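Exercise (ungraded).
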Amino acid sequence: MGERSSYRSPEPSPEPSPERLPDLPLDRSLARSAAERREARAQALSLIGASFAYRADEPIDARAALSNINLSLEPGEMLAVLGPQGSGTSTLCRLAAGLLADHGLVSGRVEAAGEVAMLGDDPEAQLTGMTSFVDDEIRLPTRLTGSTRPVDVDGALEALGMRRLAGRRLDTLSGGERQLVALAGLMTLDPSLLVLDQPALSLDPSARVLLRDALRRFLRGGGAVLLAGHQHDELTAAADRVVFLQRGRIAGGAASAEVTQEMLARHGVWNTVDLAADAARIVKRNAGGADPESASELAAPAAAGVVPTAPGARPAPQRELEQRDPELCEPAQHEPEPERWEPLLSVRDMTVRREGFAVFEGLDFAVASGEVLAIIGANGAGKSTLLRAIGALLGASASTTGELMLRPSTPTLPAPEGSGQLQARVAPTHPRDTRTKLPRSHDAKGVVELGRLAAHERAQYVGWVGQDPGAQLSAATVRGELERAAPLASHRRRDRARLREERRRAVQAVLERVDLAESSEEHPYDLTPAQRKDLVIASALLLEPSVLLLDEPTLGRDLEGMRRLERIITDFTRSGGAVLLTTHDLRWAARVAARMMRLGN
Amino acid sequence: MTAMQGRLSEPGLERHSRTSPGSSAILHPATELVLLASALLCIYGIPSPVVPATLLALAVITAAASPRIALGRWAATFAVLAAPMLLMVGLIQGVFYPGDRAEVLWRWGAAAVTVDGLAVALQLWLRVAAMIAVCALFAFGSDSARTFDGMIRLRAPLGIAYVCATALSLIPLLRGQVSHALEARAARGWNTARLGTRLGLLPGIIAGLLTASLVQLDQRHDTLEQRGFGRVRRPASLQEHRDGRVQRAIRWAAPLASIALVAGAVSGLVHLPSASEILGAIRG
Amino acid sequence: MNTRDSVSGQGLVTTMSPGESRPNAPKWAYLLTAAGSLVIIATYVAVLVTQPATLGQDLGNTTLWVMLGYLAGAALIAAGTLPLIPRSIYALMPVAIALNITVGQIVGTLTPIPLYLDSLGSVIVGVLAGPAAGALTGVLGNVIWGVTINPTVIAFTAGAAFVGAAAGWAARLGAFRAAWWAVIAGLIVGVPGGALGAPVAAFLFGGGLGVGTGSIVATLQAAGLEMLGATTAQSLASDTADKAIIFLIAFLVLRALPKRIVRRYPLAMRSLSARSRRGAGETRETVSA
């Protein structure tokens, strides 16, 4: 049985083969009528009854990753394939790009008219390791086809509005910039079909608009675009059609203009944009009430670098947004009453310099117990740096100045009746000092000068969750990861068993809190990216910090994943914690956060 | 010999510039690889201490002369790798040499310092030291894309070229992952500045490192396939390298010359002084 | 086979699966591999028959023949195994090679432990993707290790290829289903492995490569053994222990790897117990996201 393993020649078979290996080996052995052939020619991509299963010999039931997919895409057309995590959107991208033959069992018909270029979803995985500079990276696809023709690097970058990246080292780019560079490189191949898996994932709104415009130009030139993802965003909204995928099957579709909130929610897709169809309905209902362009309004560049809205005040458009989202769960946080507003974490005059340059300067802000503060701003504005600075995780290359004070929260009020089930499971959360015997270094007034503490000492006050969850995980199971995530409090040997037992219980509680209890024996890398992030959040919750620092927690989440995240955040703020998060999803930020803060020049 | 002269003529290189990365290197990576192989053949093919000694000296000069190679780092690497071997071979063969007719300089029980033993030890070490020196020159002046280009130029199969080139690029990747892992631990309350804590965390970090790098390389390979890797058997060179008739000639001449040299030495046509002759000359 | 069930009936025009059948690997691949093994064995026998047990003052040409024979054999094996190797394993090979090199370098030459632990990566690849891939990893690992850090190991390439291949064979026989079987397989593999390495260690490097292994050779020579005898005795002792440990570690590593990697290799899936296999079936959906 092992003999039938995936022994495939890495090289083309020994008989003299043409210079190019077939992109889609499926085409060759298909017996087709001439008419069918002509029809296929006209399509940029055509999938007829296409199916894919990972291994054939696994003891799996009959679920295939993709079943009987029928899709066609004409030149000049943009199609978005949306579905929840695990619905097969990424697999479909790979199938369309002809990259699956080595990974399992493909059946049915997959035909593409010309060159297909695909961009993968993970911005962290956009480095090939073969190149170190942007220019080389842009030339790479051309070189890999065996061509030595000169490549217009600047032109390729210019098309995406990223000319400033020319000549940079790849490892200095942000995730979004890496994706754009990779895309610029693929575009130099002049493909007839572009397959983009969650291209907007880590792009800021303005970069999304630039990319959208570039894609439109590409379409006008006769190209076709296949987008895929778990979120409906500025890019998928610009598609001509939207197709929904569920459990590897096509579950419906609509013209892009007709997509409604209800439709997206039904298919488990998270929405980050204002929908034309919904807006039209509301406008009708409100007798011509102006549609508040919430996202673009909030995204408008502010005069000063940082514009915190008034404490406790919520952005005006929120009510309307809520009306339009009957499907979504309740508003995420209970508002602190203005007169009782007291800062939990306050930052005064914070400046971070890296290699002589100020990433940001003189930052002042505070966040209260029970509050969510969203930090927004363009790619590279220093959002991640700010969160790392608060956690003392910037490394030796950066210097931080300024004051960082924390007033650990007083025991919180019991959660409102009927809404505290989640919290009840992890009782008792407070008072903190009964739980661990970690030394807590605060003065008589209970104020902690965080700025004086090292990273590991801050960990009990602020829980940092970085952008790439993979970088924060190392154990072979989810449970193992959590059990070893944090050190046990210093103890005598005879107490060890008791502490271990306590930790086990805490881990179980926190697993249930983030909905990972069922996956506790899985390998963290076998989880979906969103679940991996939840696992890192869980490890932070284990220390019961006062403040959670979430770096891009919404990346690539479907509706279910977003609801889970909102639950975690609500749960945390209800028990008196504060959350600082960075995001590009302005619409969600306006809903979940009491205030937003814009970073950038 | 030719090999090292080739390497010697390698002047300062700014390894990457924006417009034409690697173009400032005089030699094509393929030429470097061929020279390296020729040098190794000479070291092991000619039973005379003169060859490794000469190559060792040439390598030191090259390392000192080439601005592309930091002499300090090169020397440190060389010392770390060659010193334990010198020590061990000196001890084993120099003191415990099992030959019968060995000339004994000093004896203490089972241990005896013999001329033969010392000669064997020194020769063995010279060979290894010369190899290390030459190879370190290559390793310090190369990166993935360069190695890949060189191997593709030498018609290595795509898969093998990929594996070799990527293996060379792993060190920065691993270094990055270790620092991520330590950072993640610090963010959960481990005092990673303490050596004891670090050592305690080490097994977990290493286990995680293995998985993380497997997954990451898997992704990189996947990404590379998305860029079109594997569609043609011979991709064009990823960086721009200088190449020309002279280099092509060197690529043929260097291995042929070293094979001729080795064949000559084996058949006795070319005679380089052997260790006993040198010893004899020293003794007068 | 539930292949047919997993795809809905209509539209099944072609079926492509890397796992469906062993692609007819060209005959020359097997011939090359066999030729490579023959060259190595011939070199080994020739060295044993013709050489004095102790090196003379002038090193002579032994080193050249040993090195050429082993390297040529390894190159032939590498060329022969290429078409037998699943393409996806190339992605993992660099890590395996790095593992060979870093652990091997640290344990083998810098610490006083008389072990090598320099074939962990090849063994893992062998268990995942079969003997051909394991052998190739061993060959490439030693060549890269040699060219970048420690040229002495180039000469041990034949042994490295053997260990990688042996791990694949052991996995096919089911040795990686239980820890003790893995240990026993390792002990057995260590015997020919050690025997292959001994002439290299003796004639090329005078037995003195690692701090730990070297001290044993020195002790044995002091006790009156000849150079080859001392090195062989040391090799056999070190290698059997070494391979047993490595096979055990590989057994553990295999179980700590994410299913999204292991799942691709049917051989590895067979090495996992029934329980873990079911786990893999359940997780496959998440990875398809």
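Further reading is listed at the end of the chapter. For now, observe: Strands of chain B lie at 104-108, 111-114. Chain B touches chain C through 67 residues (CB under 8 Å).
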